[in-house]
Amino acid sequence: MGIYDRDYYRRPQPGLSLRMPQSMVITLIIINAALYLIDGLLFQHTHDLTRILELSSDTLWRPWMWWQFVTYGFVHDPTSIMHIIMNMAGLFFLGRYVEQLYGSKEFLRIYLVMIILGSLCFALGSFVTSTITHQENNFHLLGASGAVSGVTILFVLNYPNVTLMLIPIPIPIKAWVIGVLLVVFNFIGAVTPESGNVAYGVHIVGIIFAFLYFQYRWNLGRFFRNIFHKPKFLFRPKFRIHKPDEESEEPDLNAEVDRILEKISREGEGSLSRKERRTLETASRQYQNRKR
Q: CB neighbours (10 Å) of residue 68?
């Protein structure tokens, strides 16, 4: 079986399909756009949907509202359409390449972790500020800009010399320059007293997490599996009957290669174990020998 004959390398057939898009980036954009439209059409004057999903500065002390630590990242300012357009444009143009690199599931994990970390830092920062100033803060946080900033940095770190076009002015510029400008702009905004209503601190959290993820080659899928893995002492020993007269069957290498390639398509190359990498190397050598 050729590599392009496998199911996950086949091109989609034309026709009407009710399935969700395979791209996680497109799925996230659809969710954000749908919530924005629903809020604008059904709650045009009150924007109740956005008010319910956005994060408040006192959410930290209301455990029954902790779901807002995630939902705030999927709603945007109903009074400014550019808020959602800029975030979704960055996610669309850069996030697709990051998703291809790490896989759809790992990309979603990265995205959600940056959203949660940004909201936690925002809530803790609001608490510290109110404690120092002895004033009760009534801040609200909404938008995906913290996660999008992190996705942008991941793109820049993986493809620093790619030439990009700035929006809305079509000026060609290297990706690493955009990364530097993004970092400098947000740190200057964070230390400026009159920084307006932009959550620069949330952007910085996404940027720092993306840098650490790239620098230390983290894999959130493996990390969460290790956390929720059942302790070994809970497993009972399993005994096997050895039959020396029977020849041990060699594993089907083609089936194993199919499984590994499907895993790469689903979770990215970084999810492979050493054993799986050796299996691919063995299969590659056998293919080259047959070709000779």
A: 22
Residue 99 is encoded by which pair of tokens? 């998703």
Q: Name the pTM for this structure.
A: 0.74
Beta bridge partners of 165: 172
Region 23-227: CATH code: 1.20.1540.10
Q: Are 118 and 147 in contact (CB under 8 A)?
A: yes
Q: What is the CA radius of gyration of the chain?
A: 24
Structural contact between residues 123 and 59, judged by C-beta atoms closer than 8 angstroms: yes
Instruction: Say which residues have a Cβ less than 8 Å from residue 152's Cβ, sequence separation at least 6.
Output: 90, 94, 178, 179, 182, 210
Tokens 């990309």 locate to: 107
The pLDDT profile of the chain, 292 residues, written as one tens digit per residue, is 444 344 444 444 444 445 556 799 999 999 999 999 999 999 998 999 999 999 988 888 899 999 999 999 999 999 999 999 999 999 999 999 999 999 999 999 999 999 999 999 999 988 887 778 767 677 889 999 999 999 999 999 999 999 998 776 778 999 999 999 999 999 999 888 776 788 999 999 999 999 999 999 999 998 888 887 755 555 555 555 444 444 444 457 778 888 888 887 777 777 778 788 888 888 877 777 776 5
List the chain domain ranges. Answer: 23-227, 252-292
Tokens of 259: 């499984």
CB atoms inside a 10 Å sphere around CB 237: 4
Contact present, 141 and 198 (Cβ < 8 Å): no
Which pair of tokens denotes residue 291?
A: 């070709």
Q: SS3 for 51?
A: helix
